[in-house]
Design goal:
Layout: H1 2-9, H2 16-45, H3 49-56, H4 59-68, H5 74-85, H6 89-125, H7 131-144, H8 146-163, H9 167-192, H10 194-210, H11 213-218, H12 232-265, H13 269-304, H14 308-335, H15 337-345, H16 352-366, H17 369-384, H18 389-415, H19 419-427, H20 437-463, H21 471-495, H22 504-528, H23 532-542
Helix pairs in contact: 2-9, 2-13, 3-7, 3-13, 4-6, 4-8, 4-12, 5-8, 5-12, 5-13, 6-7, 6-8, 6-12, 7-10, 8-10, 9-10, 12-18, 13-14, 13-16, 13-17, 13-20, 14-16, 14-17, 14-21, 15-16, 15-22, 16-20, 17-20, 18-20, 21-22
């Protein structure tokens, strides 16, 4: 029985849609835990100074995690890993040992330097904090410096699982990560204060790593230290991964700049920005990340094998499904933004003013849900094709645009009366304070849309494939999403008098019924219009991939047979 359970955890899942669904389902579980985590935080603290400190403490560790991806990102390691497989198990094991040793050595040095520089860096990223809050920020940030080491090494060994299509354990890791953070809120914070929250994050990062170890051991590729570190393959990793790591680092720098601006707007602004960003990230993890991660090994294999048509097919099919899933999320998150925020975060110290401001920010973030999903996939497609410089240049330009819009529009927002019409008519938050934080969400979305559009045009320029291929599918999904939005909004207006919108269950039922009516017509339209994406999903689910036979690891010697 135990062996059967272990084998089921270690089974191979080779289909892109099946793997994407598995990762997506696990992402849903992880995101549900993340929602519960944020509800606990919101109910305990509200949108105030303490959460501003807590969320700001992630900025430096998250940037260092981006640095760690130079030696751990799957976009660079998976193609090299797969090429080493053709040389035999020993060649792969040697590569894993060398890259792992170098990773730990570099990260220990970087984290050590960050520990001593933290007071100076913290003052730069939160110029609006008082001296007392800065001291608290330094303490929390130093604890969180352990997270890029643990999560980075976890990302490194996850490449082994992805290369062997062992997606189950890979998908379980983020679930345990959020479970650790929740443990910190419930059990560590009451006795340790704010530092207890950060120790919960470290516990989650440790679980994220440890859950993958048995599966890595089972394929005989558990990293071991070695003195013979450098070689052509390591230099190749650096050549391919450095642009990707810089790109992710740019994203973190953008968030850091936006955090710095939010710290100067007023107490609670960072919390509002982060809560709305976390909610916006839910469909990204469920859709964009799931399909991009699941498709990447297949895209890499087809390109390495010289099968360009198959490579293009994998990219286009994944794009179709990202569009299929993302558009309804965009619509529902905009129409139901207040319901979503109130249901998820509306407890305890998180008041109605916090809800309205966070909902407005969520609506602005949601504009870019589809764009972010496209970026996730196309960046990996470029990396699978060995083209690493172009997405970096695009990311750099979009990052500059994001920051420029944030600074420029914020100035106009504070000085120009016409822009207040936008605040009053569309977002309906003119009576609230600190509405300038909404400019940050808007600038982020504009930068994301520009990033996706240029990557799309660039991919089509390189491979001459995307023009017209997705037109029919995109049109069907756009019309269906318009039906979804109109129906949901109409049902909300018609039924609002039948629900007690002062209670959790009243708000939940009101939004759920409206969304259900909209989704019913959305799916009906797509089904009767012959939408291929919907039929692909039905086919993938009907195969019951979770009941497929587990594939045991290949024996490495006769003794293991």
């Amino acid at each position: 029985m135990v062996r059967k359970i272990l084998l089921s955890f270690n089974r191979e899942i080779s289909g892109v849609h099946q793997a994407a669904l598995l990762i997506g389902l696990s992402s849903i579980v992880a995101k549900v835990l993340a929602l519960y985590r944020d509800r606990l935080l919101a109910g305990t603290f509200g949108a105030g100074e303490e959460l501003d400190i807590y969320f700001a403490a992630f900025r430096v560790p998250d940037f260092l995690y981006a640095v760690s991806l130079i030696l751990s990102t799957n976009a660079a390691i998976l193609p090299i890993f797969m090429r080493r497989e053709s040389r035999g198990h020993d060649a792969v094991r040697s590569f894993v040992a060398r890259i792992s040793t170098l990773f730990i050595f570099v990260m220990v040095l970087v984290i050590g330097a960050a520990y001593f520089l933290m007071p100076f860096v913290s003052s730069l990223i939160t110029p609006g904090f008082s001296a007392v809050n800065l001291d608290k920020l330094v303490v929390l940030s130093r604890i969180l410096l352990l997270s890029p080491l643990l999560l980075g090494f976890s990302a490194l060994i996850s490449n082994i699982l992805q290369a062997h299509n062992r997606f189950f354990i890979y998908a379980l890791s983020p679930v345990l990560y959020n479970a650790g953070i929740i443990a910190g809120i419930l059990f560590f914070y009451p006795s340790m204060g704010l530092s207890g929250l950060t120790w919960g994050v470290i516990l989650g990062a440790l679980l994220h790593l440890l859950v993958q170890v048995p599966s890595v051991v089972s394929v005989g590729l558990m990293p071991r230290p070695t003195l013979a570190v450098f070689g052509k393959d390591i230099l190749e990793v650096l050549r391919f991964s450095t642009p990707r790591s810089i790109g992710i680092g740019l994203n973190q720098l953008v968030l850091t700049v936006l955090t710095a601006i939010a710290s100067a707007i007023g107490a609670g602004s960072i919390a509002v920005f982060q809560f709305s960003y976390n909610l916006f990230s839910i469909p990204l993890g469920v859709i964009g990340l799931s399909y991009s991660v699941a498709a990447f090994p297949a895209m890499t294999r087809s390109f390495v094998d010289g099968k360009k048509d198959e490579f293009i097919k994998n990219v286009v099919n994944s794009l179709r499904h990202i569009i299929f899933w993302s558009l309804p999320f965009v619509v529902l998150f905009i129409v139901l933004r207040a319901h979503i925020v109130r249901v998820v975060l509306g407890a305890g110290a998180f008041g109605w003013a916090d809800t309205r401001l966070t909902a407005a920010a969520l609506g602005l973030f949601s504009i870019s849900i589809l764009a972010q999903g496209i970026v996730m996939l196309l960046v990996r497609a470029f990396y699978a094709a060995g083209k690493t410089v172009f997405p970096l240049i695009v990311n750099f330009i979009s990052s500059l645009v994001t920051v420029a819009i944030a600074v420029g529009v914020l100035y106009l927002f504070e000085t120009s009366h016409p822009l207040r019409v936008f605040e009053r008519v569309l977002l309906r938050v003119e009576d609230l304070g600190q509405t300038s934080v909404l400019v940050l969400a808007f600038s982020f979305s504009v930068g994301s849309v520009i990033n996706a559009a240029v990557l799309w045009l660039g991919f089509n320029s390189f491979f001459k494939t995307l023009d017209g291929i997705l037109a029919r599918s995109s049109w069907q999904n756009t019309v269906a999403s318009a039906v979804l939005g109109g129906t949901t909004y109409g049902v909300l207006k018609i039924t609002d008098k039948f629900f007690d919108l002062q209670t959790f269950w009243g708000i939940f039922a009101h939004g759920a019924i409206a969304a259900s009516a909209g989704l019913f017509l959305f799916l009906a339209y797509l089904w009767f219009s012959g939408n291929q994406e919907l039929r692909d999903i039905v086919s993938a689910v009907s195969q019951k991939f979770w009941k497929s036979e587990a594939i045991a690891p290949e024996p490495r010697s006769a003794a293991e047979i």
